[in-house]
Amino acid sequence: MTTRLKRKLGELGVDTSSRKANENFCLIGTPLPPLEKSKDTGEFVPLWKQEVRDEKGRRRLHGAFTGGFSAGYFNTVGSKEGWTPATFTSSRNDRAKKAAMRPEDFMDEEDIQDLKDNRTIVDTTEEMDFMGGTQAELQGKSVDDSEKDPITRALETSLLPAPKDSVGAKMLKKMGWRLGQGIGPRISLKQRKLQDTQAYDALTGTRYSGTTLDLPEDDEEANKHTYAPRDTPILVVKRKDNFHGLGYVPGRSLQDSLGNTAAGVSKGPKLAGGFGLGALNDADEDDLDVYDHDHRSSRERVAYDHINGDDDDTVVIGGRSSKRNVPAPRSSSSVQHFRDGHPVLTGFILSDHPVAEDKWFPLPDVPAGWKPDPKRVWSKNKENIQTPAPVPHAQPHAQWKKSQISADQRGSILGEAPLQAAQRSVFDYMSEKDKERIKRITSGLKGASETGSSIPGPPPPPVSLAKLEPHIAQAALRGFQPFKSDPVKQARYNAYLLSQANTDGSSPPLKRLPTQAADEFQKELEDYAKAASLFKPMSGAMAGRFTSAAVIEAGPKIIEGLHTPSEEEIAEKEAQKKKEEEDRISPKAHAAKMGMYGPLTRETKPWQPAKLLCKRFGVKEPNPEPEVSTEPMAGPSSSAASASFTHPEFDQPVATAAGKDDTAPSQQIDKPRDLANIGLGEDETQGQDTLTYERPSMDIFKAIFASDSEDSDDETPDNDDEEDVAAPAKPKETGFISATTILDDTPIDMSTFKPTFIPREGKNKKSKDDDKAKEKKEKKDKKKKEKKAVLVSFEVDEDGADTLEVKQPKDRPKKKRKEKIAQDGQDHGMWATKPPDEFANTTPEILAPAVPPDQDLASSQATGPKGRKRAIDFM
Amino acid sequence: MAPSRGPQPLARTLHATLENHKGGVNVARYSKGTAKYVLTGGQDRTVRLWNANAGTEIKTFAAHGYEVLSITVSQDNAKFASSGGDRSVFLWDVATGTTTRRLSGHMGKIYVVEFNQDATVVASGSFDSTVRLWDLRAQARLPIQILDEAHDAVQTLHVGPTYILCGSVDGHVRTYDLRMGELRSDFLGHPVASVVPTEDSQTYLVATLDNHIRLMDSSTGKMLNDFTGHVNESYRTRACFGYAEASVISGDENGQIWAWDLLDAKPLQPNPPPKVHQKLITWTEHHPTDAGEMITASADGTVKIWRHPENSAH
C-alpha cells in the first residue's frame, strides 16, 4: 500500500491499520493450515497429515516403519497403567457357575463384529433354501410316520423349529397353492380324472398306481367343483453311482423295464426274510418266496437290487407317495387256490397272466447239395467293387510296408489314371545339350568306376561316400565293433573305416556289392559313418581320466557248510596280512628300517615357538606377527640386543652393533616414540657400528687386561678354580654355529672375535656408570667376580696374544650375567648365595691335575679338529 | 696323556660306589660348573646329593611321592628340578632342600625334565606325549608352550641354546628350532631312549631300543655312525659322549659299560666289557670337564664313580 493511497484513505476517514482495509482477496497457492489447533473437525487437512483413529481415539495406522497397526497400548497387551497378569483364583468352589469358554470370550470387539457379520450372512443363506423346505419335510415325515410313536413325533415337532418354506413355496402359497396340489389353473373333475389315468410314474415310466382322487365319476356334488391339477412328479435324475447297465433299473426285470407287464406284477420277488442277504451271496431258494413268482423272472437275482432300489426317487410336491418299502399287505380276503387245489399262501395272490414260454422256431430245410459260400453273401450288397482284390486288406501292415508299392503302383492297382507329371525327372528339365554332356561324362565314368547301372532309366547319381574325419575313423577302428554278429558287415565296416582313416588313399574305398542297389550302398555307408561316430572310444584327453576296471568282481566265493579254514588258507592269510602291513608302513619307516636315514626319514615343518619362549631363550622370534612392524626400528635392535645377551657369537655384526652400548637398546624400547625423529633418527644406535668400527690396537687390550690383573692382586689365583673355569668355558665357544660356518672350517681369525672385545670395553664403562648411579654394593660384588674371571683370563693371557681365543668365549657368559643384573636387580639375590663356593667350602680341596696350562691349551686346540668330531668329519 | 691318539681309554677303575638308594637309581647327574657333586634320583622317591670325590652323601631331598625319573641342575647350581611318577615337576632349592615350585599339568609320569641354559625355562617330557615348557621367571601356572607333536611318551629331552631336542617312544627325534621356527623330526623307527647332542649341535647321539646307538647329523638327518654290540631293548639307558666327544659310552641291560670310538664305531677295549653292575645301567654320564671320570647309575641301586687310575689316586 503506497503512502499516497494511505493518505487519501486517511483523508476519507478510513483507518488504514484496520483489518478491513488490509483485507486481501488474492489467494496464491494452498493456504497452510493454521498453527494453532482449531476445533473444526471438518477442516481441510492435507493428505500427509490425515490420521486414522478408531472410535476410542487411538491412532490406528502408524506407517510401516513405526509399527503398522496399533493394538493395545503402544502395541502391548497392557493398558496405560500397565499390564497385570490375572491373579489365580481357584475355580474349585464355583465350578458350576463358571460358563464354558467360548471363542468369543477371547475376541475383541472387532473380531466379534466380524463374526456377527459373517453370521448374518450365513443365516440368510440358510434361509434361502429353495427346495430344501419341502423335501426335508417330506423326508422327515416319511421317517417319522413309520417308526415313531405319536408322542415322540409331537414332542419333536414342538421342539424342532417350524419348517420354513422356501421363497418359492411362500410365493406359491400366496397364490393359493397348497401342499399336494399341482401347479396350474384349477380343472374340472373330469379333467382331473383323465390326468390321473394318464399319470406315469416318473421314475419307472410305468403307469402311476398311486393315490388318485377316489371320487365317483357321477357324483354331482363333486362335479360342481373345480380341482387343482394333478401334482406333477418331479423327476430327480439320480447321479449314476453304480455299475449297472444304462437304463437298467434295479429291482426290475427286463420285461418290467420295457413296460409290457402290468403294474401289479412288477414288484419283483418277495423275500421271505427281508434281511440277511449280502451283495455277493445269492438269495437262496429258501429265502426267495418261490410261490409268488413270475416264471419269467424266476432266475432273477434281485434281492439286493430291490433293497438298493428302495430310495424314494420320486418327489411329489405336496403329496405323499405310497411307501413301497413298506410291505403293503395285499388285502385279499378270499383265499385263492392254485389249479391243482393247493391254497395260495397268505399274503400272496395268484397271477392271472399265463406263463410265457420261449418261442422256438424250427430250422429251415437245407436243400440237398448246398454248400456254404459266404463270399456270395458278402459280395451281394457291394456293387461298387468290381475287382475282387481283397489282397491289400488281408495283408498286415508290416507286410504291406515291406512290399513298398509306390504311389503309382497303388494307383494302377486301384485303376487310377496315371498322372502326367509323375515320371518327370530332373533330366526332363534339362536342355538337350546338357543331357548329352552328362551322358558323355557318365559314359566316361563307367569305364573307371563300375557303378554299373543295372537299373534302367536315368542313371543314379554317383554315390557320395559318407565322409568321416580320419581321427574319428581311427578311433572307431580301435573301439567297439558294432556288427560283430555279422562278420561280413563288420569286415565291410572295417574296410570303410580304413578307407576313411587313411586319407592318402593307401587303402581302397569301400566297393559296392554287386547285388546292392546304389541307394542301399549309400545307406550302408551312412550307417557306417553314424556307427563310427557313435562307437568311437573316448578321445585321448578324456580317456586318460578313466581307467578301465582290471578286476571283475564276482562277489565273495561262498563255500557251503561250516567253514573250517585249512592250514594253507591260514598261511595264505597271514602272508597276505604281512604283505599288507609291509605295504602300510610308510616309505619313511621303510627307509628307517633300511638304515637310510636322511631326507627320507626327515620331516620338516614350520613351528611357531611362543613369543615368551623366544624371549626366554633370547632368540628373535621367527616369522614374527605383522604387529611387530608397528615399530620397525625398535624391533630389530632390541632383538639384536637380546641376542647379544646370551649368544654373542651368533651374529657378530649384530652383537657389535648392540654391544656398543648394550644397555641403550633396552631402554630405548620403553621410550615413547618421538614424533620429531621418526624413521632412522629414532634409532640412536644406527650407523654407530659403521662409524666407530675400528679395531682397537693391541695396547688397549693390554691396558685393559693388565690393569685388571693388577687390581686383583689380593686374590691369589686358585689352581683348581682356574682349571674349572677354563675348561667349561671351552664348550661355550660353540654355542650355535650354522652348518655353513662349520663347513667353512676356517680357523678363527682375529677379525671374527675382535668385535666382542669392543662391547666389553664399552660395556665396562657403561655398566660402571649405571651401577654407580644405582647400587654400589652390588657393583662391588660384581666387580669381584669380574676380576676373578678376568684374572683367569689374564693367567692365560701371559702365554701369548693368540690365547685370546680361549679367553674370549669364557668371557661371554660373565658379561651376559652382568648385563642381566644391570637390567633387573631381582636376580642378584640368586647370586648372593654363590652356590659353587658354598659347595666348595663343604668339600675338601682337590688338587688340580698337574697339567700345564699351555699344554692343556695345546691339547684343546689339537682336539678341536681332531678330538671333537664334527659332522664334517663323517662326510 | 696323548690326546691326539684317538679317544682316551675309558675310566674303568671304580672310584666310589654310592649305595644309599633303596631301589634302583634312575638318574645320576653331575652338577654344573666344576661338577664335583652328583645328584641321583631313584625308585625310593628321593633325590640324593653326593660328593663324587669322597663318595659320601651330602643331602637327601625327599618330597616326591613317586619314583624320580629325571633331574636337571641349573647352571648356577643353586637349584635343580626333578620329575617322576607324580606328574609334576619339582623345583628344588639346593641349599634349603625344599621344593620352591611344583609345576603340575602333565597327564602322565614325567620321564624327563631339562633346564634351558640360564634356567629360566624348564622343559618336561611326559608319558602323555607332550613336552611342556614352563616359565620360571613369571609366576604363571600354565606352561609357556606345549609341544604335542609326539605321538607317544617323550623319554628324553635336551634343551640347547636355541633348540629343543626331544626323543619319543614313537621313534622320532624332534628338533624344535626356535630360531628357524621349524620342527625337524627324524624318524628312527624304534623307541628313542636318549638323545644327547654334541657341543657344536651339529650331531646328536640317539640310543634306541633296538640295541643301536646312532650318531645323526642334525642338519640333514643322515646317520653318521652306528654303534652296536650292547643290549638295550626294553629300558631307557642313557648313552653319552666320552671325553672331548671322542668316544661314545653307554651302559647296557646286562650291567656292562660299552665304549666306542666315535669315528670308526668300533668298541673300545675290553670287548666285551666286564659286567660291573648287577642289573641294567640306567644312566651313564661322563664328567663334563674331567677326562678321566664318569658315573653310572644302575637299577641295582648303586651309583658308581669311575676314574682313571691316575685320577683316582688323589
Automatic annotation (TrEMBL), chain A:
Domain of life: Eukaryota
Every G-patch domain range: 164-184
UniProt cross-references to Pfam families, sorted A to Z: DUF1604 (PF07713), G-patch (PF01585), HTH_TGH (PF26093)
Cellular component GO terms held in the UniProt record: nucleus
Region Disordered, residue ranges: 308-338, 562-603, 616-875
Biological-process GO terms, alphabetical: mRNA processing
A single MF term (Gene Ontology): RNA binding
Transmembrane segments: none
Biased segments, Basic and acidic residues type: 572-586, 760-778
Biased composition (Acidic residues): 708-725
PANTHER family reported in the protein's UniProt record: G PATCH DOMAIN-CONTAINING PROTEIN 1
Protein name: DUF1604-domain-containing protein
Organism, as annotated: Pholiota conissans
Automatic annotation (TrEMBL), chain B:
Pfam families found in the cross-reference section: WD40 (PF00400)
Transmembrane segments: none
One of the GO biological process terms: mRNA splicing, via spliceosome
SMART domains in alphabetical order: WD40
Keywords on record: Cytoplasm, Repeat, WD repeat
Protein family (similarity comment): Belongs to the WD repeat MORG1 family.
Full protein name: Nuclear mRNA splicing protein
